[in-house]
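hey can u run this one w/ farnesyl diphosphate bound, need the structure tokens asap thx
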Amino acid sequence: MPGFALKRLLQLNFITFAPQSQAPCLTNSFKHFMSLKDKINLQQLPKHIAIIMDGNGRWAKEKGEDRLFGHWNGVESVRDVVEGAAELGVQYLTLYAFSTENWDRPAYEVSGLMELLVETIRKEVPTLNKNNIKLHVIGDMGMLPELARKELDEAIGETSSNSGLNLIMALSYSSRWEINNAVKKIAEAVKKNKLQPEEIGANTLQQYLCTSNYPDPELMIRTSGEFRISNFLLYQLAYTELYFTNTLWPDFRKENLYEAILDYQGRERRFGKTSEQLK
Ligand code: FPP
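ok here u go:
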């Protein structure tokens, strides 16, 4: 098959390419042949993937639409990527949905995002349960509108006995806020004599972070061509493999996730050691 034809085929949505009802075998064989999913080594799957979902505003602007249109379409990507991660067997997926700094955006955008959050959570809980996904939230929940907090609390409760993918939404979250908070809690523990300064060791701070119950991410993806980690999991990302893509978040799909995982699987993770030591 000529290279350009293969490239074009890869850009096409498999379902629209050949409807199942007309050519099920053809569709399935192409799906099988073309998906990057088949190339992933499931034994070396990152346990925890974190994503900065960026580019919604630019995606909308390119289409002459309002920024909120980008966020609404970003929810489709969230759905697809969560499903893709769950299907693969990824254990933790953290999505940066709203940063502390996002509160400074125009009021209509902030309230639009909060409405979208409430509506999405309300609508998606049955799907989370169907797919055995457990919802968690990290961030300054006290900053969220009461209705959003209520929906989140209910959704967390309703999905709490699921044992598949742990979906962690970072909402009103920033790493500096989290570290500041952790240091305050440590100081209080010392003040109350529950912790001695000499007991503060290499793992103490980690135990006071919002992420104390989760392993550090092994792969962090940021979309939209920005090469920053901003204020996201600054402590936790020390040895995380970083993957940047130009794809804007509303265009990001499972296939893009597979691409990032394959890139990760091609890397050598040395954790400060030499290549020879790893062998
Ligand atoms: C960054 O794009 C994205 C956000 C600030 C919000 C992300 C939210 C979603 C993907 C929707 C799902 C989330 C909820 C709360 C249900 P940007 O607006 O910074 O894009 P730009 O850099 O192009 O302006």
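Residues 1-24 have pLDDT under 50 and may be disordered. anyway lmk if its weird
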